[in-house]
Predict the 3D structure of the following.
Amino acid sequence: MVNEENKIQKSRSFNFRKIFEIPSRLAHSIGGDSGSDEEDMDDNIGNVQFISQGGTPSVPLENHQMDNEPVSSLTQDAAKAGNTRKDKEPTDMELMKERFAKLLLGEDMSGGGKGVSSALALSNAITNLAASVFGEQSKLEPMSQKRKDRWRKEIDWLLSVTDYIVEFVPAQQKSKDGTNMEIMVTQQRRDLVMNIPALKKLDAMLIDCLDNFKDAKEFWYVSKDAEESEKGVQRTDKWWLPTIKVPPEGLSDASRRWLQYQKDCVNQVLKASMAINAQILAEMEVPENYIESLPKNGRSSLGDSIYKNITVEFFDPEQFLSTMDMSSEHKVLDLKNRIEASIVIWKRKMHQKDGKSSWVPAVSLEKRELFEERAETILLLLKHRFPGIPQSSLEISKIQYNRDVGHAVLESYSRVLESLANTVMSRIEDVLYADSVTQDPSLAIAKWNPSAESSPQQPLSGMSTPRGETEMLSSAAETPTSMTLSDFMGWNMEQGEGDISKNQETFCPR
């Protein structure tokens, strides 16, 4: 009897000793210093199951952790392996939750309430999405189906916010006794009802235009790192882009006309998106921070030479621009900043009639209004002549301090479409340039800016306004852009050229 009790006591002490020994042996064996006997024991560890004093199986070793004991490396590796198996591609619902969580936090992931406004967060989200999907469109080629699906899905998520931006409008309601009474109901805000469908149509037109280039066989791209004999033609100011190769005799007449047709279609999208963007920016309030940074009068903003050219008796906007130094993007942007600042100053003078801050004594309101119209004409010409120019100080300030979510969505969506359309048109012009250089090498120049040369030369009386161009948007949306090169081969060019010129007249009244 005594012997049996001693055996039980020894077995219990052995089991408890094992509980404390095995984790240390595991850690020791993983370090690679264990002997053969320890390795034999470690091989059987997975099969060990301990019996508690109550006779029931205890927790297996891999799930057992002593109090105040660090987890072994083997346990950590097993946990990582389990997490790896669980890591899958996030679902659409998870992606949408993450996207809207960032919007609600105002891009402040700490949750400390120091984030930007909802309008700016939404504007940044649309801008970042476009940058990640489109990136640098270096070639004329269709977008991959994955990129298309991502763009359409995520832009719809962000645009869904506008479905809940509503305004009250009167409506008729018939009561049970048959009498009509007027009530107020909600509907989507008017500017969103007009512009969101139009921008979606422009979006689809741009993507369809890129899809059309899947049949383009007469030109192809060569890496800029290729051998000198295999390189094609590229402008020196676009050295980072792949070079364009065309046949030795150049493009065929049909391909050249088809490329010009695609360029005209993209140009319509560009002008329409520019018009919407300009209209939305004009409707945004000028921030007080920007106003405080302005000089006291318009002459100080423009400078003496520019001011004299604008205030002459007989003003010609084209002649004015010909006298300005616009040799670089920085100088064009500086001119735009000066003119926009003077417009804001003159408008405030006309509305506030502050005699103390009068910029020129005895200048009538009619003259100030005339000078403002001339400055706006110059801005519109600069916008058409340099569509890829960066945003001005006034535009950046408006976007930064804007609190209207509807305006933020319209401005950012139209801006990214404007940028993409300008890029696609520039790539088409690169191909046409390579074709012209192949036929006549003397046409090769260091800097070639056909957008500036082919900009609409409109007289002052025929200048279109952003609002007027927006009203003509419906006709542009009906312009067919899904014509492939094979369709174009049998196209009646006389009728086609008439249609193109007609569409150009729609956007560029002369």
About this structure: The CA atoms of residues 136 and 175 lie 59 Å apart. The beta strands are 166-174, 180-188, 220-222, 243-245. DSSP finds 21 helices and four strands in the chain. Residues 16-69, 354-362, 446-481, 485-510 have pLDDT under 50 and may be disordered.
